[in-house]
Amino acid sequence: MLQLPPLSLYIHIPWCVQKCPYCDFNSHAQKGEIPDLEYVDHLLADLDADLHLTSGRSIGTIFIGGGTPSLLSAQAMQKLLDGVRARLPVNADAEITMEANPGTVEADRFNAYQQAGVNRISIGVQSFNLEKLERLGRIHDAEEAKRAARLAENLELRSFNLDLMHGLPNQTLEEALNDLQQAIALSPPHLSWYQLTIEPNTLFGSRPPVLPDDDALWDIYQRGHQLLSAAGYQQYETSAYAKPGYQCQHNLNYWRFGDYLGIGCGAHGKLTFTDGRILRTAKTRHPRGYMQGNYMDKQYLVVTDELPFEFFMNRFRLLEATPRSEFTAFTGLDESKIRPQIEAAIEKGYLTETETSWQITEKGKLFLNSLLELFL
Ligand SMILES: C[S@@+](CC[C@H](N)C(=O)[O-])C[C@H]1O[C@@H](n2cnc3c(N)ncnc32)[C@H](O)[C@@H]1O
Ligand code: SF4
Question: Rounded to two decimals, what is the model's pTM?
Fold first, then answer.
């Protein structure tokens, strides 16, 4: 019987005050009050229907993402987390994150979220530059973002994160570094620093803004990385930086090919069974259909041949070494299945190997697609 990977829970909240022009997340502009208590009833019914997939495991991390979870009332958040704890064992030291938009945050609500059990808040700052914030269609200014960060800090949560983006329309190197400096000054234990991508089904996709060219993007990345490193942040994934001991446990579990239940509109799940089969689930995307009680949209078993690719696609996003034992533990496959591909990757200089682990090299990171293709 297979040793099962750790289990996380993702909960999706599908509404925002307004839709940002760059964003292709499953989020809908809210018209009037959001039906939060009714939605929580559906989330818990959705969870009930998935409980048989957990094989009796307890939950190690919870992530409430969106959309804008900070649109939930304190009462709805309490009901949601009480409902989760009543249905599933949640580890005493579980990391429980929620995302918050600085334009939707009030002091007493942060406090109430904490009372409900939230112990990590992730704040969508994006930039501190007013012109950039307007160009990004954000509903807050720099002061509101700073206020939200200070609120999170004063609550003495287990951690908090700031989301920043770079490579913004017409952004100069100085502007990008200035955003980072202002973020660092707020001392978040975790900083997500995303390069803006233009997604097809967005307003920016149909009317693309002028972005910094590749040389400018490279300068921003290199200089920003230096700034973050000098301030004590360690990069552990392409866009994720943390002070030592403050890596996001929920995202780490995704990237280490752990399991997760996904509840709420459009949420994805991955569940391993004791006989080695791996199930992927996807929930109904639109709130209308979802709130009619049609939760499951798709579910299918991962084909064994695709497991090595899926495992390494997640694993090689992380800069840490991959324990070789986890390949067998989490895929149920013997290492001999991928021996030729591993040899080829080492030969090409993409990987190094010790008795216990594999480490992706700088060249491997640069040619990640070629490295992953070996496992297709
Ligand atoms: C669900 S949002 C965070 C919470 C909240 N909705 C907000 O925006 O404040 C997740 C994060 O993804 C990042 N993001 C979204 N679209 C992106 C894009 N096209 N390129 C890069 N980062 C993006 C943003 O930094 C954003 O804060
Ligand atoms: S970036 Fe955040 S606030 Fe903006 S539309 Fe996407 S989920 Fe909503």
Answer: 0.96
